[in-house]
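Hi F.,

I've been meaning to write this up properly since the lab meeting, where we talked about keeping a consistent format for the predictions we share between groups. The idea is simple: the sequence comes first, exactly as it goes in, then the C-alpha cells exactly as they come out, then a line or two of notes. No screenshots and no reformatting. I'm using this chain as the first example so we have something concrete to point to.
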Amino acid sequence: MTPLQRYIAEEIAVDHADGLLTRREALRRLGLIGLGVAAATSLLAACTNDPGTTTASTASSEASPPPGAAGAVATESVTLPGPDGRTLQGAWAPAASPRGAVLVIHENKGLTDHIRSVAGRFAGEGYSALAVDLLSEEGGTASFTDPAQATATLAKVPPERFVADMKAGVDELERRVPNKKTAAVGFCFGGGMVWLLLASGEPRLAAAVPFYGPLPENANFSSSRAAVLAIYAEHDARVNASRDAAAAALARAALPHEVVTIPGADHAFFNDTGQRYNPAAASEAYDRVLDWFDEYVR
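Output, unedited:
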C-alpha cells in the first residue's frame, strides 16, 4: 500500500474499533481500497486490541450551531481550470469585503455539504473561501452514490495530481480575490493534503492549518513560506504519532508555527455531522484559526 492507502485503511480500522462501523462494513471498505480478507482481518484485529483506541464521542450538535454557522455565507457550485486542460469542481463562498482567501480541503469522503458549510463560515468571517473537489477528474464527489467508493477512489489517486489540483485552487483564489493573502485549511485526509501542499514548496500560501492530518514521509517544508497552525486532538493516538515529527520539520524550515493539541477531543472532532464531533473543541479550534488568520492572512 501507498502511505495514503495505509492511512485510509487504518482510519477504517479505527472507526470499526470505535464502534462506528460494523465488521462487515469495515471489511467491505478495506476491500475497496485493495486489501485482501486476510490482511483486512489482521488490521481490524490489531486496531481492536490497540490500547490507544478510544470510544467515539457521541456529543450532540443540536445544542448550538457549529462555530461560525450563524454568519455563514451561502456557497455556490463552480468550475475552474485545472492542470493539463482538466476542469475542476468546487464550492465558492465570497466574503462581502475580503480580508484574505482560504483554500478548503475536504476529508476522505470528498466535497460534502459539511465542507461546503466550512467554506461558507470562513467567508462569513471575511475570508473568501474555495473548497476544491479532489474527485473532479472522476466526475466529482456527487457522482458517487457510495461514500466508501469515493474514499477508495481518493486512496488510489497519485499525490502529484492532488498537489496540482490544489495549486489550481490557489490560482483560482488569486483570480477571484486579487491582491490578498491566501491560506489553506484541511481536515483529516485534507489535513494531510495541506501538509503535502506545504511539502511541494507552494510559495503563495501565507498560512496553513492542517487539522489532524497525516504527515508525508520525510516531510521537508524548506521551500514554503507559510505560517503553520497544526491542530491535533488529545485522543487521536494514530495521527498524534507524527506530531513531534511535524513540529521538528516546521522548526527545521524556520517557519512561524504553533502545534496545538485540543484537550478532550478525538479525531474528526470538528465535523459537526460526524459521531466524534465535540462542540467545545470545535469552537476552541475555530477561534484559534481565526486568530491565526488575523495575524498572518489579513
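Notes:
The longest strand covers residues 87-93.
Strands lie at 76-81, 87-93, 100-105, 127-132, 182-187, 205-211, 227-233, 257-262.

If this format works for you, I'll send the rest the same way.

G.
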